[in-house]
Design goal:
Largest sheet: 10 strands, mixed
EC number: 4.2.1.136, 5.1.99.6
CATH class of the largest domain: Alpha Beta
Distance between the termini: 16 Å
Bound molecules: ligand NAX, potassium ion
Strand order of the largest sheet: 10-19-18-17-16-15-14-11-12-13
Strand content: 5-15%
Helix content: 40-55%
InterPro entries: Carbohydrate_kinase_pred_CS, CARKD, Nnr, Ribokinase-like, YjeF_N_dom, YjeF_N_dom_sf
CATH architecture of the largest domain: 3-Layer(aba) Sandwich
Radius of gyration: 26 Å
Number of strands: 19
Cofactor: K(+); Mg(2+)
GO molecular function, one term: metal ion binding
Protein name: Bifunctional NAD(P)H-hydrate repair enzyme
């Protein structure tokens, strides 16, 4: 059972894939009408839980809370397809549980099953309107206008109705997806319902995990309705995989527990190349991120003038002072005797370098160690215009751009904002690197088309320095994994998950304003401790 839940939690589907899975279930003999009853029954129960919970929260502090709240008014927004059918079954169930139910349905042509449910609801005396105004006094709205069958931009009257109800500021629970969102890209097709909750049905739809959808999705959860795993496997096996990072996938990739007999070099030797006189803080934060990764040995190459502050901040690290340019950037790498770039288990290069450090980048690219490039490492790479040569590197390369850096690196890939999964996949295929595109829902892709999406994060991370911490952290994980058979994209995904979970915990304890990058580094280990305590 747990195994099923975990497998389902990782799956992300497009509208076409969901449609194909659904078809297999129906072809196998499951009646459409039975599946709709089953799914809508689960939705109705969950809506009652959510609704009662929010009523209890509103009533907190009041002397007594009646276990049987007076029937509340629920508005049901009904579309022409089976999303509308689901909503109408929910309407009927809530009506029988004692709620006052009002239906809004502006469509005259409905799918047959949806039409039958509407007819029955009418026969029960539920009022049905083709304008939205009568629903204005409802305490709760259920959005069943469109699900994964939405195929074009919304037009009036439904578009205006959605705009109007979004103004009402009422709790809205969307069935499957907020109506108006593109199932695959999360793009708003004209307009979309701003839900407080989204109950995604069966499997996670890709659109719900996109930055541009997040203003509309609210709190999202999955309603599992027992889709056979075999059907999912058959439909997904021939397309590139897109997966959700889960706690289980992330924890299974961490270098824990350590073997009882080991030594520091066996636990990875990471070289960080970072910092300049102008940006010394970036080097410190990258170092602190790497420290939290648990890496066995940490060397940090910085301009000579940063050496003493780095030693003070990271006494355990070997700080390598390098000759610097007039502007205070690393002019040339000067590694200790008997070391060269190929002797490190991984190299992470970029934070705070400034573009004046450009001469060192080719040297780093020529090394045969796994390499992560971030920040100015990426900017210099973009200026060099040699992104195609990454394919020729003898070891993996990881690029961790934010959208601005992504556009500089891959100017010919359009829509990095609108089609993040597609853009990241294209960038990885083009460069041969593992590409991590930062965002509220960070996307990681490898050159074979495998994609991971980080499903949780916090806007608290929108702050200078948090990217430097990520670079150090992933660098440290790459170094520790260098002798293990874990794919690079999984390590990178784990780093992204860990970083955002630390920020979520920090934001819970300190508010979203309290998560400066230095504080974040202190939560990296704290979040692992609290996660393993919750196991
Ligand atoms: N996948 C599954 O296994 C299940 C799906 N169910 C529900 O079925 C939904 C999918 O049902 P459908 O395929 O009927 O799709 P929808 O209910 O999303 O709507 C499709 C209908 O809307 C019309 N339409 C599309 N775009 C429009 C636009 N811009 N303006 C006006 N009309 C438009 C289409 O012509 C079609 O009639 C899911 O989202 C879910 O709610 C559940 O009933 C049960 C199980
Ligand atoms: K919907």
């Amino acid at each position: 059972m747990k195994d099923r839940q975990e497998k389902i939690a990782q799956v992300i589907v497009t509208a076409q894939q969901m449609h194909d899975i659904e078809e297999r279930i129906f072809t196998a003999g499951m009646p459409v009408v039975a599946l709709m009853e089953k799914v809508a029954g689960l939705i109705a129960r969950r809506i009652q839980d959510i609704y009662l919970l929010s009523c209890q929260q509103e009533n907190k502090g009041k002397a007594s809370l009646s276990p049987s709240l007076p029937p509340s008014r629920v508005g049901i927004l009904t579309g022409p397809g089976h999303n509308g059918g689901d909503a109408l079954v929910v309407a009927r169930e809530l009506y029988f549980r004692g709620y006052e139910v009002l239906i809004y349905c502006p469509f005259s042509k409905l799918k047959e099953l949806t039409s039958q449910h509407l007819q029955y609801n009418r026969s029960l005396g539920l009022p049905c309107y083709d304008s939205i105004e009568p629903l204005q006094d409802c305490d709760l709205l259920i959005d069943g206008l469109f699900g994964f069958g939405l195929e074009r931009t919304l037009t009036d009257p439904v578009a205006s109705a959605i705009n109007q109800l979004n103004e009402w500021d009422k709790p809205i629970i969307s069935i499957d997806l907020p109506s108006g969102l593109h199932t695959d890209t999360g793009e708003v097709l004209g307009t979309a319902v701003r839900a407080t909750h989204t109950l995604c049905l069966g499997l996670w739809k890709q659109g719900l995990l996109q930055d541009q959808a997040l203003d509309y999705v609210g709190k999202a959860e999955l309603i599992d309705f027992d889709i056979p795993l075999a059907d999912i496997q058959v439909v997904l096996e021939n397309s590139p995989s897109t997966k959700r990072i889960t706690k289980t996938t992330a924890l299974s990739t961490l270098p824990l527990p350590r073997p009882p007999v080991t030594h520091k070099y066996k636990e990875g030797h990471l070289l960080l190349i970072c910092g300049s006189r102008r940006y010394s803080g970036g080097a410190i934060l990258t170092g602190l991120g790497a420290r939290a990764s648990g890496v066995g040995m940490l060397s940090i190459a910085v301009p000579e003038s940063l050496k003493s502050i780095m030693v003070a901040q990271l006494p355990e690290a070997l700080i390598i002072g390098c000759p610097e340019t007039e502007s205070g950037a690393i002019a040339q790498l000067q590694l200790p005797a008997k070391t060269d770039l190929n002797s490190f288990s991984a190299i992470a290069c970029g934070p705070g370098l400034t573009r004046d450090a450009s001469p060192i980048l080719q040297e780093v690219l020529d090394s045969i160690s796994p390499l992560l490039l971030d920040a100015d490492g990426l900017n210099i790479l973009a200026e060099m215009g040699t992104i195609n040569t990454l394919q020729k590197r003898q070891n993996s390369t990881v690029l961790t751009p934010h959208t601005g850096e992504f556009k500089r690196l891959f100017p010919e890939i359009a829509d990095a904002n609108q089609h993040r999964v597609k853009a990241t996949r294209e960038a990885a295929a083009q460069s041969g690197a593992v590409v991590l595109l930062k965002g509220a829902r960070t996307v990681i892709a490898n050159s074979q088309g495998t994609v991971w999406i980080n499903p949780e994060s916090t806007p608290a991370l929108a702050r200078g320095g948090s990217g430097d911490v990520l670079t150090g952290l992933i660098g440290g994980l790459l170094a520790q994994a260098s002798s293990k058979k874990i794919s690079v994209e999984e390590i990178v995904a784990t780093g992204a998950w860990w970083h955002s979970q630390a920020a979520i915990l920090a934001a819970q304890e300190r508010t979203e304003l309290g998560v400066d990058a230095h504080t974040l580094t202190n939560y990296l280990i704290a979040v692992l401790v609290s996660t393993s305590n919750k196991k």
